[in-house]
Write a structure and sequence with these properties.
Largest sheet: 4 strands, mixed
Structural class: alpha+beta
Number of domains: 3
Strand content: 5-15%
Number of strands: 6
Helix content: 55-70%
Order of helices and strands: EEEHEHEHHEHHHHH
Radius of gyration: 36 Å
Number of helices: 9
Length: about 280
Amino acid sequence: MTAFARVTGEKAGAELTWELRSVNHRYLEIFVRLPEELRALEPRVRERVNVRLGRGKLECVLRWRLAPQLADELELDPDRLKAVLDACREIETRSSEATSPGVMELLRWPGVVRDPEPETAPLQEFALASLEQALDELVATREREGEQTRELLSTRLDGIGQQVKKARKRLPEVQVKVRNKVQARLAELETQIDNDRVEQELVFLLQKMDVDEELDRLDGHVTETRRVLESDEPVGRRLDFLMQEFNREANTLGSKSADRETTAISVELKVLIEQMREQVQNVE
């Protein structure tokens, strides 16, 4: 499911920010971007995400910077500063035109001023704790979206149920219509007709057109989908399978259709099923 979470915190002289972005995907794919100082955390980050999520394409980005109070401090590297000053004196002894660098020039010299480095161990633990907070926020967002998706799927299931009732109600009328049509055609023939044989063929024809079994299965899929939607476990793959079964029955209904209205019902079922299938791609 699509979701976003952002958590910022400060610990061990550093300010950490996690950004998690989740988009729809059939399986779980995790992309992790960490600062070089915390690169060793990647396996543990993947482990934490795998525990919390089962589906989706997830981008995990961690950024860090020195805490404001440390960023304002200047820390000199004495060895580097001594080496620069010694080099300056050496140059002065060799050239009468050489001038000593000013204080600001010395401060700008690479390596003379070094950034304070926070302790890595507490920073790693804090990063993992912050990741859990970000995952909490992400999961909560996904759950809210999941509730909306469940309502949309429930509405489509209502529509499928209505179409099934409509098709079932129309079955006797379709059978009478087919019987009358065949008998009218036979009446136009100027030949002797074996009524028993005609009745046998009519029964065979009506059996081929019978869609009671398909309608029963559609009702069963509606019931099962509603049950699955109430589950607290990941149900995305089960719903994928159910959508395939829905589509199979709708196709069979269309292929057995003997009139325009039943064909229209089959088309409407396919539209509703496709709308459900698109939403199911968002479900974990």
